[in-house]
Amino acid sequence: MGVLRPMTLYILRRIFGFLVTLLIAAAVIFLLLDLLPGDPARFILGINATPEAVAALRLQMGLDDPALLRFSNWLFGMLRGDFGLSQTQKLPVAGLIAERMAVTLPLTLFAMVISVAIGLPLGILAARHRGKPVDTALMILAQTGVAIPNFWFGMLLTLLFAVTLRWLPPGGFTPWNEDAWASLRGLVLPSLALALPQAAILARVMRTALVDVSSQDFIRTARAKGMTFGEALWRHGVRNALLPVLTILGLQFAFLIAGTIIVENVFYLPGLGRLIFTAISERDLVLVRSATIILVLVVSFTMLVVDLAYGLVDPRLRERRA
Amino acid sequence: MRVTKSFALASAGLLLATGLAFAQSTEIRVGAPLEPPALDPTAGAAEAIDVVVYQNVFEALTRIDQNGAVQPGLASAWTISEDGLTYRFTLNDGVTFHDGTAFDAEDVKFTFERILADDGVNAQKALYEAISAVTVVDPLTVDITLSRPDGLFLFNIGRGDAVIVAPESAANNATDPIGTGPFAFVQWDRGSRVILEQYGPYWGEKPALTKATYVFIGDTATMTNALLAGDVDGTYNFAAEALPVFDGNPQFKVLVGSTEGETILSTNNAKSPFDKLEVRQAMAHAINRQEIIDGATYGYGVPIGSHFAPHHPYYIDLTNTYPYDLDKARELLAEAGYPDGFSATLKLPPVNYARVSGQIIASEFAKVGIKLELINMEWAQWLEDVFANKDFDLTIISHVEPFDIGIYANPDYYFGYNNPEVQALNETLNATTDEAKRKELAQEMQTIIAKDAVNGFLFELAQTGVWNAKLEGMWQNAPVEGVVLRDVHWVE
């Protein structure tokens, strides 16, 4: 082990944890979906279908194979990069998910950028003026932002900017290759709706972290060297306060990728959340489990990146772990 | 300065949008609450499929019009043999599928043989099981022979489940539908929209629209905003609770029409205590129809007293068979041996009318001692538990099939009603082609079913469309599932 540098070991450990998480998640997803009541074939053919037609469709969909066989087919298929064929849409799952990612990923990124751009400065400003009216006002604002549900805020945005002013579309999405400008316009309101509550959370976390840091010895030392409180906070405080903020950012990214379904519904965007929701109600088991495992992959990968970023921001961490 | 600039930019965008709106006078954007899982109407029961493709992309031998009458479709005419068993169809000449291949009698043969094949997955296979042979006489003449007379045959072959498909393309219709209709499928952006465009070489009268886009918007409030913002030009069946927004608005029109959806409190007749006539009669007396219609459909539902659509010529009004009377209900329960009532479950599928009706019925039933436990379910679970496994006491569901009184003649059907008299009547009805006689038989069946209080008969669902006031030609009624665009056009 002595040959491995501490940082390498740290990375390897994290990657191992990441792979184990994926395998456990795959088993749990498969099991839960298999226990879900409801026959996919019956769902497709409805209440007037003859038993023979339902049986024929079950056979076509491979629903009657033993569970273990279906599980191993799925796992080995994924290892080859084959996520299976959607049972209701008759198309490769990988393609369906990629299509939705073209909406969900930019939406998530825009929302993240907006929330960082609003949240962090406001958090720093509040910490800088701790206990003063500016701080109180900002924190009341943040508390309100946290409390407002994003879908409701989204509806208000639609009413103002789409129904009344007609500046932006009320929803829907134009594919990127058709009219990229229209695609961008379609993402403005939903990313705003998603970003506001996230920005409020970020502002609060940033402020708390900075306040914690500002009572530490090194800030006092910096002050003793003649820096103003603001300078000390900016030069020494912010970097030290970033750790909790990074954690929250990672969680927010994961939440935005998988959890935008309500906002997608409000703006009728063809995102990943809606794909999975529809697939569950239509009992498209192949699509649900492959999409879910991809989400698990994205979320655990984000966490991996956050873990590694800790090491970058705080050299002490990688040394301590090694 | 910056404010002015962005404002100018926004105004420019607005002008652009307005300019487009004027140019779009032959295009339409239709809002639909559900996205179809696939686009093949012959291999799935989802209404969302027919909403997009029925009579637009695909056509059948006959065509059902908005009043439920049978009109010529791909077949221009037909004759029926003396014994009512052989139908000879004359097909239209010059019809092509959207991939350019010609339509002829072989396609008709292929279509019906595909439905009836052993491994066929047609959702309405049972409707076509009377067909014993499809014979090609010449390319434009085809004979369909039945094993027994079927009074509904011409209607049934006009449905979305029997649209004519071609052997070259049928396998791919789920994702790339190829039909003979006035509109050809162009593009499907999954999760968002389906685009159809007018098919140039269409054999019949050209529609006024050149392009139709179906936009899928599941949420009622969102659909309201999309309509108000002009992002969609209309929707065919909108949630009744949102209609007041559009009712007085001169930019919109609300079309209220009929459907084939008999909404019933489905009762497990094979299970105690519901196997007792008095118990079912007691429940019928405890149903306050007007209250349910007001609560669950905002007054748009039409009361029914049996399992039959009020707009149908065979309909008779039986809503007064067991009028709302709680004392009478208590009396009947006591007679049946339940003076203190009983407990039961009410399983509710995920549709608003069922959930709301369920709550109203539970509170009425509680007054006579019937304690209902409400259980909310998803569709897939409902289909398995209630419909396939018959594991239920009561449920609320709308039966949307046209002329489906025949389900009361099937003792294996999920509500378990077994009455040989009704079964015999139904058999006679199916074999009868004389209108007056059919009407008499159908009315007799309605009466027996009502008197037996097989299910709680609540209301006929209404179709409530909201459209741009300048649009004409939409179907007001929904005799079959579908949003037929053939006659839709813009007026100034």
What attributes does this structure have?
heterodimer; A: 322 residues; mainly alpha; 78% helix; 0% strand; globular; B: 492 residues; alpha+beta; eleven-stranded mixed β-sheet; four-stranded antiparallel β-sheet; 13 helices; 19 strands; 29% helix; 23% strand
Q: How big a fraction of the residues of chain B is strand?
A: 15-25%
Stretches of chain B where pLDDT is under 50 for at least 5 consecutive residues are 1-24
**Portion in helices of chain A:** over 70%
Count the E strands of chain A.
0
The number of distinct helices of chain A, counting runs of at least 4 residues, comes to 14
Largest sheet of chain A: none
Order of helices and strands of chain A: HHHHHHHHHHHHHH
pLDDT < 50 runs, ≥5 residues of chain A = none
| Overall shape of chain A | globular
Strand percentage of chain A lies at under 5%
Shape, per Cα inertia axes of chain B = globular
**How many helices of chain B?**
13
Biggest pleated sheet of chain B: 11 strands, mixed
Helix and strand topology:
The complex is a heterodimer of chains A (322) and B (492).
Chain A: H1 6-35, H2 40-45, H3 51-61, H4 67-79, H5 93-128, H6 133-147, H7 150-164, H8 180-214, H9 217-224, H10 229-258, H11 261-266, H12 272-281, H13 285-313, H14 315-321
Chain B: H1 2-23, E1 27-32, H2 47-53, E2 62-64, E3 70-72, E4 75-80, E5 86-91, H3 105-116, E6 131-138, E7 141-146, H4 153-156, E8 183-189, E9 193-198, E10 211-216, H5 220-228, E11 234-235, H6 244-247, E12 252-267, H7 277-285, H8 289-297, E13 302-303, H9 326-335, E14 343-348, H10 352-367, E15 371-376, H11 379-388, E16 394-399, H12 420-431, H13 435-451, E17 456-468, E18 471-472, E19 489-490
Structure description:
The complex is a heterodimer of chains A (322) and B (492). With 322 residues, chain A is an all-alpha fold. Helices cover 78% and strands 0% of the residues of chain A. Chain A has 14 helices and no strands. In chain A, helix 9 (217-224) packs antiparallel against helix 10 (229-258). The longest helix of chain A is centred in the middle third of the chain and has 36 residues, at 93-128. Chain A starts with 5 loop residues before the first helix and ends with a helix. In chain B, helix 12 (420-431) runs antiparallel to helix 13. Residues 1-24 of chain B have low confidence and may be disordered. Chain B contains 13 helices and 19 strands. Chain B is an alpha+beta fold. The two termini of chain B are 40 Å apart. Helices cover 29% and strands 23% of the residues of chain B. At the A-B interface, helix 2, helix 3, helix 5, helix 7 and helix 12 of A face helix 1, helix 5 and helix 11 of B.
